[in-house]
Amino acid sequence: MAETVGFTPTEEMTLIRSTARQFLGDRLSIGVVREQMMSGEGFDRSLWKEMAELGWTGLMIPEEHGGAGYGLAELSVILDEMGRNLTPGPFLASAVLATMAVMEIGSDEQRAELLPALASGDRLASLALYEGPRDWGLDGIATTARPSGGGWVIEGVKRHVLDGHMADTLLVLARVGDDLGLFAVDSDAVEVEQVPVLDLTRRQATVRLNGVHVPAERALGERPVGQGLRRVLAMGSAALAVEQVGGAQRCLELSIEYAKTRYQFGRPIGSFQAVKHRCAEMLVRVEQARSTTQHAVRVTDDPEELAIASPLAASVASEAYVWVAGETIQVHGGIGFTWEHDAHLYLKRAKTSSLLLGDPRFQRDLLGRALGL
Amino acid sequence: MSDHVEQLLDRLLEEHPPATTPHEVFWGAQYDLGLAWVWHPDGFGGLGLPRRVQGLIDRRLLDGGASVENRHINLLGIGMGAGVLAAHGSDAQRRRWLRPMFTTEEMWCQMFSEPGAGSDLAGLATQAVRDGDEWVVNGQKVWTTLAHVAKWGMLVARTDPDAVKHEGLTYFIVDMESPGVDVRPLYQITGEAEFNEVFFTDVRLPDSNRIDAVGAGWRVSLTTLMNERVAIGGNAVPRGSGRIAQAIEVWGRSGLEDPVLRDELLRLWADVEAFRLTSIRANEMTAAGTPGPEGSTGKWAWATHNKAIASFILDVMGLEGTLYPDGYSMSRPPAFEGRSPQHGFLRTRANSIEGGTSEIMLNILGERVLGLPGEPRVDKDLPWKEVPRG
Ligand SMILES: Cc1cc2nc3c(=O)[nH]c(=O)nc-3n(C[C@H](O)[C@H](O)[C@H](O)COP(=O)(O)OP(=O)(O)OC[C@H]3O[C@@H](n4cnc5c(N)ncnc54)[C@H](O)[C@@H]3O)c2cc1C
Predict the structure, then answer these.
(1) CA distance B377 to A24
(2) Model ipTM value
(3) How confident is the model at residue B236 (pLDDT cuts 50, 70, 90)?
(4) Domain spanning B221-369: which superfamily?
(5) With a 6 A CB cut-off, is B24 part of the ligand 1 pocket?
C-alpha cells in the first residue's frame, strides 16, 4: 500500500547508478551529446550496442527472454542519469515504452519472439500511437486494421513516433471495428519520415501505413488493448517523470554553481535574494518531484496505487522541470540564452517531455478520475 | 515496530481504555510507559528508539480509539519545549517539566519575538540580570501564542549587552504565574486573540530555571526553532487529510463541474501529496543516517500550499465565501481550534510568518542547504548595544 513503500535505494540500484554515471560521463559527455544532436540520425547506433552490453536494454525483460528481470525502480535509475546528461537516442522509446508494451500486452509466443532481440539490442522498437496533437487519451484513433486473407491490412498516419526513424519494429495502434488493437509492423513495410523537432536530442517521425499487410500473429495479445496500453503509458509516464527529475536536478546544480561564481555589484549574484530565493524554490520543487517519481516507480505492482502515483509524478515533475529549466536561463542572464550554454538544451527537453505522454492538465485529469474527483 | 513496543501499547490500551479514561490520565500513563517521545531515554517519556517509531505508535493509538490531540493542544510544549529539554536540559529539569507538559496539565508558550526583534531574533532586548541565585527580568515580548493559558514560557533574554548579538543571550523557563508577568491579548485578523504581548517587570527567576550555560541562549533557540519547523511543517499525515480534505469536501458538496476549478483542486492535491511524500522520504533518509535537503523544504512548502488551498476553498464556495459564520468573537481561545473555511482562509495567512517567515526559510535553504553566499551584514561584529534598530 501507498504508505509502506520505502524510498531507500537497494544495493542494485546504487550499483546501477554508479555504472550509469560512469558510462554516460565517459561515452556521452555533453560535448558528444551536442555532436550527436546535430547529426542526421541524432544518435550513434554503436552506443546502443554498448548500452545493451551493460544490460540496460533488457533490464526489465524477464530472464527467460534474455533480460535481467528487474523492475521499473531499477530501470528508473538509468533514466534519472540520462535525464541529467540529456542522453539522446531511443532508450525511452524502445527499452522503456515499446518493451513494456510487448511485456504487458503480448501473448507468451509474441513475448518469446520479440523480447530477446529487444533485450540484446538487436531490435529497436517504438510505439506508434498518436495521430492528432492531443491523442493522449487514445480516444480519437482513426487508423484502421481490417482482416484480410488471415492477416490484417492497416491504413493510417501516425505522428510523434519517438525515434521512429531508428525503429525496426513499430507497435501501431489501430481501430478494429469498435476495439483497439496493437500491431507489430516491420518498419521496412511503411513510410517513415523524420520530422523537425524542438528537442534535437529526442527525435520523432511520421509513419504512413498505406494498406500495409500484417500477418495474424503480429496482432499483439488480445483485443481490446486499451486497458493494457493505458497501464503501459502509466508506467511510461512514471519513467519519463524520473528522467525529468534528473534533468531538473542538473539545472539546479548549474544555477547554484553559477550563482556562487558570477559577481555583480562586487558580490556573488547568489547573495542577492532574488536569485537565492529562486534557487531555493528550485530545490523545493526538485525534491518534491523526486519524491513523487520515486514513489511511482515503486508501486507498479499495485494497479490502483499506480493509477494515482503515475499522473501525480507526471504532472508534478513536468511542471517542476519546465519551471526550473526556465529559471536556469534567467539566473544565467545573457549567457543562458546562448546556443553555447547548455541551459536551452534542458529547456527544450523539459518542455517537450511535458507534452509527450500527456500534458500536466491531462495527467491531473487522470489523477482526478483515479481519486473519484 | 518491535514486540516490546507492541506489548506496551496493548498494555496501555487495556489498562486505560480510551473510551472511559480521562485524557490526562491516559497521556500520563502513555508517558510513564515511554510511549510519549519514544526517542527520549527511559524515564523521560521514551524508550531510546528511533524517532520515526513514534508515528507508528501514534497511528496504533488512534486506531485503538485514543486521542493524540495533546500534541496539538500543547504544540509549543510538546512540539518544541520537549526538544529543548531533551537536548539542553538537566535531568532534574526534564523530570520536573516533561510529564505535565505531555498530559497538557501544564501548557507552554514561547517568548522569543519582541517588538524590535522578529526575523532577527538575535537582536532581542529583554534583559535578564543576575542577582545571587536568581535572575531579574525586564522587557517585552510579543506575538506570544497561548501565553494566556500557559503555565510555563520559554524565554530568551539578553544577559550580556556588550557581547556581539548572538553571544549575549541566555535561555530560561519562566513560571507565567510569577509576580511581574503581565499577559495582554493581541487580537488577530480572525477576531481572536490566540497570541499576546507579555511584559516583564522585575520578574525573579531561580537560576535552576536556566537552560544550558549563560550565553548559550542562541544555540538553545536554534534547537527550539528547528523543532518548531518540524512540528509545523514536517509531520507525516495520512494522504488527503487536513486542509486538502476540507477542500475536497467543499468541492464535493458544491456539485460544481467547472474544469478549471477541478484542475486547480487536483494541482493542489498533487502539491500536498508531493510534500507529504517528501516528508516521509526525509524521515526515512534521516533515519538511515543520510539526511538530505528534503527536510528543510518542509516549512516553506507547507505554508505555501496551506495558504493556496485555504484560498481555493473560498473560490469554490463563491458568495458563501463572503460570509463569516464564526463571527468576530473578540475572544481568547484556550487552544488551537479548527474552524470554518473562512476562518481557515484568514488563519493561514500567518503560516508564512509564524515560526520564521517564508523569506527567512528561503534564506536558510539557499545558504545552509545550497551553500549560496550570505548577504553583506552591517551588524555582524558590533556589540549588540551599537547595532542600529527600528
Ligand atoms: C500567528 C502567529 C503566532 C506567533 N506565535 C509566536 C510565539 O508563540 N512566540 C514567538 O516568539 N513568536 C511568535 N510569532 C512571531 C513570529 O515568529 C514573527 O512574527 C516572525 O518571526 C516575523 O517577525 P516580525 O513579525 O517581526 O517580522 P519582520 O522580521 O519585521 O519581517 C517583516 C518582513 O520582512 C521580511 N524580512 C525580514 N528579514 C528579512 C531578511 N533577512 N531577508 C528577507 N526578508 C526579510 C520578512 O520575511 C517579512 O516579510 C507568531 C507570529 C504569528 C503571525
Answers:
(1) 43
(2) 0.88
(3) low
(4) Butyryl-CoA Dehydrogenase, subunit A, domain 3 (1.20.140.10)
(5) no
Q: Is B143 in the pocket of ligand 1 (CB under 6 A)?
A: yes
pLDDT at B287: 66
The three cell numbers locating residue A68: 535481467
- Point out the residue among A267, A284, A315 whose CB comes nearest to the CB of B297: A284
Residue B152 Cβ < 6 Å to ligand 1: no
pLDDT at position B234: 53
Mean pLDDT of chain B: 92
How many CA atoms, within 13 angstroms, populate the side-chain half-sphere of residue B330?
A: 0
- One-letter amino acid of A25: G
Q: Which residue of A267, A284, A367 is in closest CB contact with B301?
A: A284
> Under 8 Å CB-to-CB from B34, ≥6 apart: which residues?
B8, B40, B42, B45, B46, B47
Task: Number of A to B CB contacts under 8 A, please give it.
Answer: 129
pLDDT of residue A4: 45
Q: Give the model's confidence band at B294: pLDDT under 50 very low, under 70 low, under 90 confident, else very high.
A: low
With residues binned 3-state (H G I as helix, E B as strand, rest as coil), the percentages for chain B, rounded to 5, are: 45, 15, 40
Grid cell 473519484 in the structure block, residue:
A372
Domain B3-102 adopts which CATH fold?
Answer: Butyryl-Coa Dehydrogenase, subunit A; domain 1 (1.10.540)
In the structure, what pLDDT confidence band is assigned to residue A295 with cuts at 50, 70 and 90? very high
> What confidence category does residue A1 fall into, taking pLDDT thresholds of 50, 70 and 90?
very low
Is the pLDDT at A163 greater than 50? The verdict is yes
- In chain A, helix, strand, coil percent, each to 5? 60, 15, 25
Sequence ranges of the domains in chain B = 3-102, 108-215, 221-369
Q: Where are the strands (E) in chain B, listed by range? A: 108-111, 127-131, 134-141, 152-158, 169-175, 181-186, 195-206, 210-211
Catalytic residues of B: 228
User: What does DSSP assign to residue B141?
Assistant: E
The reply to whether residue B375 touches residue A289, judged by beta carbons under 8 angstroms, is: no
How far apart CA A81 and CA B58 sit, in angstroms, is 38
Domains of chain A: 11-123 (1.10.540.10), 126-218 (2.40.110.10), 226-370 (1.20.140.10)
A56 by Cβ neighbours in 10 Å (0-12 / 13-18 / 19+) ranks as buried
pLDDT band of residue B289 (cuts 50, 70, 90) is: low
Statement: residue A73 has pLDDT above 90: yes
Cα distance between residue B269 and residue B256, in whole Å: 17
Q: Is B108-215 a CATH 1.10.3470.10 domain?
A: no
> What would the mean pLDDT of B65-94 be, rounded to a whole number?
94
Give the whole-angstrom CA distance, residue A319 versus residue A288: 11
Of the candidates B351, B358, B337, B352, the residue with the CA atom closest to the CA atom of residue B191: B337
In angstroms, the separation between the Cα of residue A373 and the nearest Cα of chain B is 8
pLDDT of residue B225: 82
Q: Would you put residue B355 in left (φ > 0), alpha (ψ -120 to 50) or beta?
A: left
Question: Is a pLDDT exceeding 90 seen at residue A333?
Answer: yes
Q: Which helix (H) or strand (E) holds A74?
A: helix A72-85
pLDDT of residue A103 exceeding 50, the answer is yes
* Residue A38, min C-alpha distance to chain B (Å): 34
